[in-house]
Write a structure and sequence with these properties.
The protein has 414 residues and is mainly alpha-helical. It has 20 helices and 2 strands.
């Protein structure tokens, strides 16, 4: 990835504004990190544009396109701006059906047969011709379904635009894949962020519009495209993807702490306070993962689903974005695996997310100098690093559980 030049616009883009003085204070605000209040006269403060509230349940493939607002991870992490599209409409219902059939296929060959049938019926060509009409939100929804099909067919490692890919995969599907990638400006979207963060919905419609991270934390979530047949319990892969979504939602304060630490001097009095809060958040995220472990271990799995996980792991496409945000602050990945490995993990995120992480790499560099110092502040920094290592190990254990063989047949529906 080309290094991003540090400009005033970049610095503004990674800073989140404090709540307006006239806004009511909530219980969540009381736990917000940041020792020094900022005012609107502070040049480091970005005043977000006023957004018009939208109905969380509204959706149409014909939604008018608009220029997307600059992404602010301090608002909702790397979750989508609105709940993912539960059901596509018009011709795109065929992509819905293909994704659902491919996800429950017992092997790659059966999933590939689903794509071949759609190709012979000219369904892939019809979809390809309509990609440019998709709104950004519906393009993300289509990308999730394309990602499900690609991993189900064993095409995770393919570059859809490479000539060699046509010797392996269906031409019509590769053209649709490439068109979707161009539409969302993201070539490497077949990865955990797309498969998890765009493949969930609240089980019941919320009574009122609430922030997306709160919705994902407080509501019972169900997958939009299930990796288990209808009428059967959720599979381990379903539960792992939902756990990754809830991890992102519970990690919202980690993004806000990253913003607090950006540009702080290591001897700033607010730095150790923010690091201690980072430790507490990472412990809470680890507890969240532990709470998912028992249900995930008891869920059914298939050889096909284990193959999907193995392929994603081989591509470095299973790292949750929230863990990458913590790594950008604390530098664990760069120190342990090398900068190249860090960029390999990030290539599966959208460009705006990669840019934010690269900016955090630079702006948190002063804090990372604590790794080479002594004293109580350095001890707090090392504790934060150790808590991130423990969090990553807990997440990896969840992945290993999801990929472990199961004994006996899939349980039948009650």
């Amino acid at each position: 990835m080309t290094p991003m030049t540090t400009t005033s616009d970049t610095r503004l883009a990674i800073r989140a504004t404090a709540p307006p003085a006239t806004a009511p204070r909530t219980a969540a605000d009381d736990g917000a990190p940041g020792a020094h209040p900022r005012t609107v006269t502070d040049p480091a403060v970005r005043i977000p544009a006023q957004a018009t509230p939208t109905d969380a349940g509204a959706d149409s493939a014909a939604d008018p396109d608009g220029a997307p607002a600059p992404h602010d991870p301090c608002t909702h992490g790397f979750l989508p701006e609105r709940p993912p599209v539960r059901s596509m409409i018009g011709t795109w219902t065929r992509l819905d059906a293909m994704a659902r059939a491919a996800a429950v296929a017992p092997d790659h060959e059966t999933a590939i047969a689903v794509v071949e049938r759609a190709h012979r019926a000219d369904e892939l060509s019809a979809l390809r011709q309509r990609v440019s009409r998709l709104s950004p939100r519906n393009a993300e929804a289509a990308a999730m379904r394309v990602a499900v099909i690609a991993v189900s067919c064993g095409w995770t490692a393919l570059d859809p635009q490479a000539p060699a890919a046509r010797e392996v995969a269906n031409d019509g599907f590769l053209e649709l894949w490439s068109a979707i990638a161009h539409r969302i400006d993201h070539d490497q979207f077949v990865a955990l962020p797309t498969l998890a963060l765009h493949n969930w919905a609240p089980e019941r419609k919320p009574r009122r519009h609430i922030p997306i991270d709160q919705l994902a934390r407080t509501e019972q979530l169900v997958p939009i495209v299930r990796w288990a047949p209808e009428g059967q319990p959720l599979s381990r892969l379903d539960r792992l993807m939902l756990a990754a979504t809830r991890l992102e939602a519970h990690g919202i304060w980690l993004f806000r702490l990253a913003d607090t630490l950006a540009g702080r001097a290591p001897d700033d009095s607010s730095t150790p306070t923010a690091l201690r809060r980072l430790v507490r958040i990472q412990h809470a995220l680890r507890a969240q993962l532990h709470s998912e472990a028992a249900e995930l271990a008891a869920a059914p799995a298939t050889d096909q689903q284990r193959a999907v996980l193995g392929a994603l792991a081989e591509q470095g496409a299973l790292e949750p974005p929230v863990l990458q945000a913590a790594d950008a602050v604390l530098g664990i990945g760069g120190r342990r695996m090398g900068e190249g490995r860090r960029q390999l993990l990030r290539r599966h995120l959208p460009a705006q997310h990669r840019a934010w992480l690269s900016a955090m790499d630079r702006h948190c560099a002063p804090v990372r100098t604590l790794a080479h110092r002594g004293g109580p502040d350095a001890a707090v920094y090392r504790e934060a690093q150790e808590s991130l290592i423990a969090l990553r190990r807990t997440y990896n254990a969840l992945v290993h559980t999801a990929a472990a063989p199961t004994t006996g047949p899939l349980p039948t529906a009650a």
